[in-house]
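Suppose you are handed only two things: the residues of a chain and a line of SMILES describing zinc ion. What would the bound structure be? This form records exactly that question and the answer produced for it, so the two can be stored side by side and reused later without any lookup.

QUESTION INPUTS
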Amino acid sequence: MQSSVLKEKLGFVADTLMPGPYQCYLCDEEDMIGKDGLCDSCRAKLKYLPNPTYLQPLDGITVGLQYSSEISSAIMRFKKNGQTEYAGFFTQFLSVPQEWNADILIPVPMHPLRKWLRRFNHTELLAAYLSRATGIPYSTKLLFKTRFSFEQKKLKDPAERRRNMRGSFSADPHVQGLRIVLIDDVFTTGATVYECAKVLKRAGADKVYLSAVTSPSH
Ligand SMILES: [Zn+2]
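ANSWER OUTPUT
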């Protein structure tokens, strides 16, 4: 991808986020690492996706990269192995279009028990980094995961995924009138974010968008 297109997609300069990578984030290669944390070979393999189609109650979606086995294993290292340095790396693939006029970023919440088990919520880290890069504030106090559910990844059927999420979230009334950007790592069937958007709209949110790092092509 041409660098001008890449810059437009990213919306900010990624090198402000990087602590100075010594290994490629995707393959652990130690030579020729760019400020984006990638070796030349991994960078050449990345595919950016056009924004996927979406349905109400969402008002818009941006995704960065096409899902691949390399991206998948990097996401596992980030969220399950606790390698929090991946937050800065993945944030460079998130974007918030100007025309959204976003008031606030809200990470897709995790149930407190799961957060305790994992020690952190990876989407909160993404939102914190994106907030720093864009100047848009973020909050973890406006949307909550109130019911413990199976991991969506383990459910293959879209209807089953929707059922698994139903009644799982609650929103604070202070979302009234806000233009909100949900932050997530992977956009698959959208069952989780559609449920979040529904709950936020019912609580009075004006607009609900999604910015995700990666998605299988649609
Ligand atoms: Zn590499």
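WHAT STANDS OUT: The pocket of zinc ion is lined by residues 24, 26-27, 29, 38-39, 41-42 (CB under 6 Å). The beta strands are 60-66, 104-107, 143-145, 169-171, 179-186, 207-215.
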